[in-house]
From TrEMBL, chain A:
The keyword Membrane applies. InterPro entries: FN3_dom, FN3_sf, Ig-like_fold, LIF-R-like_Ig-like, LIFR_D2, Type1_Cytokine_Rcpt_Type2. It holds the Pfam family LIFR_D2. One of its GO terms (cellular component) is plasma membrane. It is a single-pass type I membrane protein. PROSITE patterns: FN3. Belongs to the type I cytokine receptor family. Type 2 subfamily. This is Leukemia inhibitory factor receptor-like. Residues 308-401, 402-501 form the Fibronectin type-III domain. Residues 848-971 are annotated as: Disordered.
TrEMBL record, chain B:
GO terms for molecular function: ciliary neurotrophic factor receptor binding. Transmembrane segments: none annotated. GO terms for biological process: ciliary neurotrophic factor-mediated signaling pathway; negative regulation of neuron apoptotic process. It comes from Xiphophorus maculatus. PANTHER family: CILIARY NEUROTROPHIC FACTOR (PTHR15196:SF1). Gene3D superfamilies: 1.20.1250.10. It comes from the Eukaryota. This is Ciliary neurotrophic factor.
Amino acid sequence: MPRLLNILTSKPNCGPVWVAFVLLGISVLNSQAKIVLTVPQQVSLSANFFSQQLTISWFGGEATTFDLIILRTEFNETVFYNTVPAVMNQDGGRHQWTWTSVEPLECTSLSVKIRSRDGITKSEWSEPQILKGRDLPSNSVQQVYPQDKVVPVGGNTTFCCIVEEGNEFRDFLYGSIKMNVKRLSRRSYVTTAVNQNLSGPTGTNVLCRLKNKLNGSVIFVGYPPLPTNFECITNDLTSAVCYWDGGRVTNLYAKRKTSYSINKRDCPDGKCVLPEWDGNWTLLAVNPLGQYSLTYSAELLHRVVPVAPVNLSATDDAWNTTVNWHWPYSSYNTLALLCQVQLASHNILLRNFSGVGLQSVFLPHLHPNTKYRVQIQCGSLNHFLKWGNWSKEFNFTTKSYVPEAPDVWMFVNRDNSVRVMWKPLTQWQSHGVLTGYEVTLWSLEENENQTNNLSPKDNSLNLTDWASITADKKAIASVKANNVKGMSQPSSIMLGLIDDKCAPLAQTIYTSSGFPLSWQHSDNSTGGYLVEWCEAVCTSDCAVDWIRLDAGSTHVSIKDSIVKFQPGVRYNFSLYESPSVSPVLIRRWQGYIQELPPSISVNLEINQQDCDVVLSWEEIPLAGRRGFLLGYKVYRVNNFSNFTLLDDLSPEMRTYTVKDLSTSTYKFTVKAYTSAGEDTGGTAAITLKQCADGLILEILTSLGIVTLLLTTVSCFCYKKRRWVKKAFYPDIPEPKLPGDWSRTQGPMDVKPFPHSMVHIIEKPEWDFSKDTLVIIPEEEDYEGEGIGDEPVDTDEPQLLRYYNQVVDERPIRPRFPDSSVSSSSSVDSANTDVTYTGIQTSHSSLVFPSDSQGFSEGFQPHSGLSLSSRNKGEGYHPQMHSVTLGGNLASPEPIVEPHAVGSEGYKPQNSWLLDSPTEGDENSPAPSLGSPTSVASTQFLLPDRERHEEKRQQPSSAANWFTNLLSSAKP
Amino acid sequence: MGNVMMAVSRTKVTAVTNLAALVEHECTNLLILYRKQENLPEDMESDRLVFISHPSSQLDTKSKLQSLHTGLGKCYSLLERAIALEEEELDGVETTEYKNTRGRLKGELLNLLKSTGGLLKAAGGKPIKVLDDSEPYQPSNLFHLKLWVYSVLMEVKFWSSTAIALLRELQAVAAKEPPKKSKKSTRSTRR
């Protein structure tokens, strides 16, 4: 251009031709400048392998933009191609461009070419510049890139593995994850881990496994630093102590961990001491992933935190002390301080004190002979920032003092002896080491004193050897405690027996807060209450505890104390009113903390009583009950373990009777039970004897007595037989026949009373001879005209036959062999009470012996011997009742044949003839009684009128009995 | 062999054998923990780091014990170096089971080294100094450090196994030898 300008100024007067030439020349020059762009020269590459950046620089002429292409040399793959603006380096005029590679630059060789571009005009490509990779044949070993890299959480990292020359690639592992692989060159393989999570403390291993070899890399994934809470204080009013928190955990350790500096001074983690108070501080935290800074500003006196006091000491007394300490810095002497003292013994107290340069405090209200621990911390009073550190703990013990008066109570032992007890003084109460107790007893009656010195371990005194104490005779016991500083005030108690019978007794149920006891408040109670408790089975030295309560108390819960509550043990609780003056027992309780099944079984006794078994047992001792007995369960043991519950008895029961048992062996178990269950039970067995023996014995005894009685009566009657005969069995006068009865021996027509045969004897007009009637109820008669159609059991002696017996001097014979059952039979007619005494034989027993002489004379039995039906209605049939032996002897209907009503006259038995059935006819007035019979008869069927009247006044049964007796007794 | 057993009680040899077994057991555990911590494959091979002749059967007892003792000494030095490098390059702040086991192994290996030194001394040899004067290992990268630590642990296991085998061999030979007393009594009888 300057040249063009020169041309224009040197030829001003040329013609149009010249102008045309000039314009043509200019246009030619312009066209040549547009087409020719300079090819970038001296291209050079500079690689930063750690940052994976490739810096390309070149000389590029006049071009303003350049095309840049990066290829993987071996496979000629384009990695990057773009038009980049030219940034000219100030020193030397080189153009420069920095490219960051995704893959490590070591993975494979890269070729870089550049050309100049001006719009669509571009120069030729420069000669390729090659960045050699590590996969060149000259480097034949296996390699993995990048190594030991630290990356932030969530980033992506590409790894490449260069396979050993001659080996074979197998896989890529990120931790334990097998990765996808891309091949970059003949020996180079890459993989990319995306969105990486926190690695382990020792990093995550990336393994490249070949066929028979292994190599890898370690990558650390974490966070950049992020400290917080940066502040600075002063302890000595000169230097600065700065603190901060590390904040988020970076997950980077060892050489990769965060480093800190304050105002360019390196600091350890968390705390840094600076010798001067700068007033402004900057904390810088740095790790491989980045850095972070915090600033802080403050005035010195506003940031004072005193150090801990040192060299603590105390000037102690019994009830107070003064604690002194030192400050390590003299600057504190003018500093207004607020100090907090922590005093600890059985509890912890905090007290605040203030003052300029405070170095001692006075601590009142301490306790004698008590060990205290003291710690002190202080802060600035005017600009309190925070408490300084606690001092080291300092211990001191206050001096001793006379003990407190002990708590005294009395306990009445089972033998009514009195035990004076006092609670052992605690260390808090004793004010020093106890040397002993002094117990003074003062009898009010006898006005005598007795003093006992006891060791510090004693807490009771049994008064068995002292004067007896009764409800009337009382005494006072005073107890004083001694230590090195002297004797305590005395504690006194009035001693005397306490009636415990009138106080109501109740049960108390243990809860988590103890045994709850409650009572109604008594307005009379002004001296408070005392609750005493001990084991129910309290031996002479059993543990007894008590608690004193205010006058307004109405309840208390008793917990474990020196009386250690145990399951299965009964405890007594007694509530006393006015315990200090004159204790009155007003209530009692009993309870268990846990009921258990009884430990002792009942001692079971077993006895037989007739057919019953009586179980009996004694009460289980209190110690063995282990609970409130709810009752006893009675079991019968059937097999080895088969129990049958017989009864559940109340706890008051001590016996149980098992009734109606057969002869066998029985086993019974009685188990007592509480709410916790049954005990193992007391077992007893018994083999029952024959329980009917006694009954038989009784029967035999009764029979013997009856026999003896009968024998006695018989003897009496025998001795007095004349009188008896006269009284009960007078001779029957022979009938006086008005006609010629003797010749005409026909049947006696007796007209029976229409209603009953028995009514016959009611006819006083009838006369009796010596002969009486033997009535034989005819079988056929019943068969034919029997009452109803009732079947007749021929095996049973249903029918009685009465034979008229002749009362004469001849012996009565014969008797039927089975006539032992002969007895009087009182047939209670509906109208008449008449006793017939005779020989009764059953129908089946009518067997007449053939050799019976007596019978052969007057009575010839044959098969048809009976009162046949043909004779019905004829003759006399007074006893012809169908009598069932086991039935009702008094037949409701008198069995009287209608024809008999029409029979005529009476025929004495001695003249009776046995009529053959053929001889009789229907009109025959007398029934046939069979063959003529001479029968001795003791019956007085037809007494005379007078006797009949007498007899009607007498009971018939006794007469029958005596009649039989006499009959059998007749010789 | 018998001379050694005469000088050292069988109980002592048994105790050293048990100690070697303990080291081997501890090292096996540590390898398991290490593989688990580093996600290393089971079939990973290790490099030999101790180049001392194995106490073969052709050597005499003293030489065997010398070889064993020297190998264990090298192992101990390697383990110390491995622990130092791990603490410097890798360890976090947390106490892990791996670190606890590693500390126990170091102590037990030192005991085994001293015990074999005692046996060697009884056999007439000279125990080595525990300090290793060889140039300390410097890893090129952390993965190589991890591989090297693995190799160190494998070396410790190998030498503890070698110790067990050798000491049991000593016990077996000693058991075959007749007791001293019987020899004396035989002699006296002959006299």
